[in-house]
Write a structure and sequence with these properties.
102 residues, alpha+beta, 4-stranded antiparallel sheet, 3-stranded mixed sheet, 24% helix
């Protein structure tokens, strides 16, 4: 099990050497959090970790009473498949803001 660390607009996990191996970033602008980046190391793919990261981010965003949008293509698709987490404050073009790193 990964030991996730939570910051203001970031949830992540590191390996034993301190390398980030899973991460979701969701900066806030004008009361709306944008899930703009989701990353999972190749060694962890296929284990549901990206979905767990997005779910944790949405829970943190909703607990703060913020609006929600997703410019990360993975997060946008995940949110459309999990409507129980509510609708997006606004639709954004689906493209990761961090040079396509997912």
């Amino acid at each position: 099990m990964l030991d996730f660390k939570t910051e203001e607009n970031r949830i992540y996990a590191e390996d034993g050497q301190g390398k980030v191996i899973a991460e979701v970033l969701f900066p806030v602008h004008d009361g709306v959090a944008d899930i703009e980046h989701t990353f999972v190391d190749d060694s962890l793919r296929g284990q549901g970790i990206a979905g767990l990261l997005v779910k944790m981010a949405v829970q943190q965003i909703r607990a703060k009473g913020l609006g929600l949008t997703a410019s990360c293509s993975y997060a946008a698709i995940w949110l459309k498949r999990h409507l129980e987490y509510g609708s997006l404050a606004e639709e954004k073009p689906m493209a990761c803001n961090l040079n396509g790193r997912h």
